[in-house]
Amino acid sequence: MNNPPKPEPGAPATSHILEELSDLTLDDLCRACAVSAELLQELVYEGVLEPRGSTPQAWLFTGVHLRHARIAVRLQRDLGVNPAGAALALQLMEDLEFLRARLRALTGQI
Amino acid sequence: MEFKDYYQLMGVARDATADDIKKAYRRLARKYHPDVSKEASAEVRFKEMREAYDVLRDPEKRAAYDQLGANWKQGQDFTPPQGWDAGFEGRGGADDADQSEAHSDFFEALFRRAAAGPRRDSAAAGLHLPGEDRHARIQIDVEDAYIGVTRNISLRIPQIDSDGRLVTRERQIEFVVPKGIRAGQHIRLAGQGGPGSGQGAAGDLYLEVGFRPHALYRVDVRDVYLDLPVAPWEAALGAALEVPTPAGVVELTVPPGSAAGRKLRLRGRGIPGTTPGDFYFVLKVVLPPVDGDDARAAYTNMAAQFRSFRPRAVLGAHT
């Protein structure tokens, strides 16, 4: 997940759907979240992130992991929650988002 | 510039203890944290409050701020008095890594400007820090997700000018909305966030995507729904119709004997993707108005024809 080459002048910026990125390494995640590998390892050991692969060197993360890691890092920094609390908050936020999406679909709003 | 009443922003008294301030911060952060709150103004509110907390939690900064006096009002026009912070050390708190976000002009004037200049020139000091990530929300039309379109976003980017002052610059970024994006997903534009200092890489820009309300379609994750009005005889006898979808007009066969509310599915015609969603037409039977004798006669004939029809049979024997 290296930064892409600079686009041609006048060309649109390169865009990806964050949630559909895959095969991100621990190093990719560290850079994207601007945090240390230790902090992310703790999130894995607490079950906040569940990468493929058995050792930190072999871990492969998805874009959804990246999104969750960034939120967990911000929640820890701004709200003082520990990794377990961040995991709970993430789960509740996912449930809430799912319910909001269902509500929007049922009430006819996009 | 506007005066910031940090005590008012945090909802604490001027003599609040450090513990009170921390509790107030935690309470407000839970309410306004941009990851948690859906309020439109949450991000602005959180930044204001974060700035207030950065000052009030630091005894040196708080003491320097308190020295301005208690008579200033939030929003009042303000210029720092000459030598206002004489005797206080520890100002210029911009060296905390997690405070790299731009604060207000008021904060910058009080706590950073004096520290600008050589210390700001981090490249010369051999510091190479990555730029901060930026976040924004965008709204697109559901049709955009079917084809992938080019859009523009205008961002205000804080930058340090050659004199070490913080200035904001407007920047236009053109990007492609990837085909198949869904509401709640994020577009990541690598390297389009805040500039890094020294040789540090630029941050990334994250755009949270939502769909604008649409007159015809509603979206449930990947699936797209359209209420399809049909005449009673079309529902009863079947019909071949030309109907709209975000990908263009399609031919649809309504099977005979369709009840109102019946869903007709076009598999894989929802939001595109490796697992595309489905498109659903939901039949909505609409009645022609009784606007004349002929129409009245038609309905009367129908009533005679269907004398034994019991529309409310499911409600019980007597209805």
Q: Biggest sheet of chain A, open or closed, and with what strands and sense?
A: none
Spatial order of strands in the largest sheet of chain B: 6-7-11-10
Mean pLDDT of chain A: 85
Highest-level CATH class of the largest domain in chain B: Mainly Alpha
Helix share bin of chain A: 40-55%
Work out the helicity level of chain B: 10-25%
Gross morphology of chain B is elongated
How large is the count of helical segments of chain A? 4
User: Could you state the order of secondary-structure elements of chain B as H and E?
Assistant: HHHHHEHEEEEEEHEEEEH
Account of the protein in words:
The complex is a heterodimer of chains A (110) and B (319). With 110 residues, chain A is mainly α. Chain A is built from four helices and one strand; from the N terminus they run βαααα. Chain A has helices spanning 26-33, 37-45, 63-79, 83-106, and one strand at residues 16-17. In chain A, α3 (63-79) crosses α4. The relative contact order of chain A is 0.13. Chain B is of the alpha+beta class and 319 residues long. Chain B has three domains: 6-111, Helix Hairpins, CATH 1.10.287; 134-211, Urease metallochaperone UreE, N-terminal domain (HSP40/DNAj peptide-binding domain), CATH 2.60.260; 217-315, Urease metallochaperone UreE, N-terminal domain (HSP40/DNAj peptide-binding domain). Chain B has helices spanning 6-10, 18-32, 42-56, 59-66, 105-112, 142-147, 232-237, 293-305; strands spanning 134-140, 149-160, 166-177, 186-189, 205-211, 217-220, 223-230, 239-245, 248-254, 263-266, 279-285. The longest helix of chain B is centred in the first third of the chain and has 15 residues, at 18-32. The termini of chain B are far apart. Residues 89-100 and 114-123 of chain B have low confidence and may be disordered. At the A-B interface, β1, α3 and α4 of A face α2, β3, β4, β5 and β6 of B. β1 of chain A pairs antiparallel with β4 of chain B, so a sheet runs across the interface.
